[in-house]
Amino acid sequence: MASVPAVHESFKQFLQADMEKELLRFTTAGSVDDGKSTLIGRLLYDAKGVYEDQLASVKKSRVNRSSGPIDFSLLTDGLRVEREQGITIDVAYRYFATARRKFIIADTPGHEQYTRNMATGASTASLAVILLDGSKGLLPQTRRHTYIASLLGIPNILVAVNKMDLVGYSETTFLRLQEEFLSLVELLNFSLVQCVPVSALEGDNIVDRSARTDWYSGPTLLEHLEAVPVQTPSALSAFRFPIQSVIRPDSAFRGFAGQIAAGSIRPEDTVVALPSGRTTRVQSIVTFDGDLEQAAAPQSITLKLQDEIDLSRGDMLVSPSRPPVVSNRFSASMVWLDEQPLRKDVGYLLKHTTRQVKARVTDITHRIDINTLAQKPASELTMNAIALVQVETTAPLFFDPYALNRATGSFILLDPLSNATVGAGMIREDLAGPQFSNWQPVSAWERAVRHGHRPGVFLLPNRVSLADTAERALFEKGFASILINGDQIPAAYLPSLLASVWSAGLIVLFTAEKPTLQLLDVLERVAGSSLFDLSADSDRRSREDIAAHMLSRAGTLRIGGPFDDSGKESINV
Q: How far apart are CA 217 and CA 225, in angstroms?
């Protein structure tokens, strides 16, 4: 029989292992009655994530709109009006875990009038599960939620083609809907899109693979959730620390409390206080559990500084080498959430990190037609409309573009009378003119962020039609590339030429009739693991096949989202 200390130690190890599990936050989205709540209920049930008392309560409920003994939607639709009407109104958060990961689910409503609730639930997600009703196809609300997910910087999309039981588990229907959705997201900024045929009611391909879709060889819904890459705020990003409050329990201590929005900090690190521009050093990092040697996003801490600097709520401590943009004019993607329309030059309150200022929308550049994703002129925005706008504030904000940092690139607009949230915005760029506060040289990583991908080298056979096809394929997908015919470049000039193109952050399509070992050595010294040799067996493969393979490899070079710093230190010039 195990001793008590041994059992205690084993339990501590179990808790530590559970705490160290990776966490994935994901949201559901789609049109009304696509089965989002039923899907999440079925996922929780099949993954053994439902407590016995919850299950007993659902079984005893007088409401059951399913054909089976359990209405799985009731596991997430908790409000009385939701159960009575059979719809989701508020965002429902559910938690469960498997042996590989922990999950936080935001089950969001599908009705158009509750689009603002969907935006709220999706704002912190790393993945969106977009539901399509297999019997109805893509609906306007599905398109709206997909576009909002793109605006919010969600990098991964899992398309659950639901209600396959209603279409006889038809492979043709699934492939048609998959093609329609992939065409929709072609112009949107998603790193990974996975389509899965499911039946939430019957449990097909939710947790276990279904024999009724033997034509489908991809992962089940849970398998994909357990394997998809998770993005976390990077400690390698520039330091951003919005001040939430000033802690002064006595005359001997003065600290500044808040949550790190990006980057990391150590004692003795130099920081700049905004808006004053004063420079100081960190004396100590204070927490309830004691002082820390280092803290990183998204930790909540208190910083004690070496110098007495006047700071208050809404100010920010930042990295001196890579400061944020300081401006009172910027463009932003806006989702309007209020029943009263947005009109230009009307005064609002703008809340950005911990800072609140007065603001107005000076121009509506265009609104987005959800059905076609076309840009349309607009003089006002009605509820649930999405648009690109220009905003002006009475005091400067300290921000980064939303594509680089969700925390410092997002804001909300408030009605100054009711204090209701009327709009949610994602900052795109500064409009107040160039900022010259940062005189540091442009880094290779900054170029990669600008292009949206890291540099790479593809070695191709010297076939004109293939090279042109490959370059066109990369161009259409938004990659910055250049075509170099290696047979026309003297060997002595090749290393310096490749180094220059590499430092510009471009993807090089390098063609050579007969690649030599010396050439391969030069390419590998420049590109390292980002060298892709597609010249082998090229005579037996079509140009379309080679181009498709190249695009697949090029996708690994994309920068996945606002906190993706993977491979940052390997981009050297």
A: 16
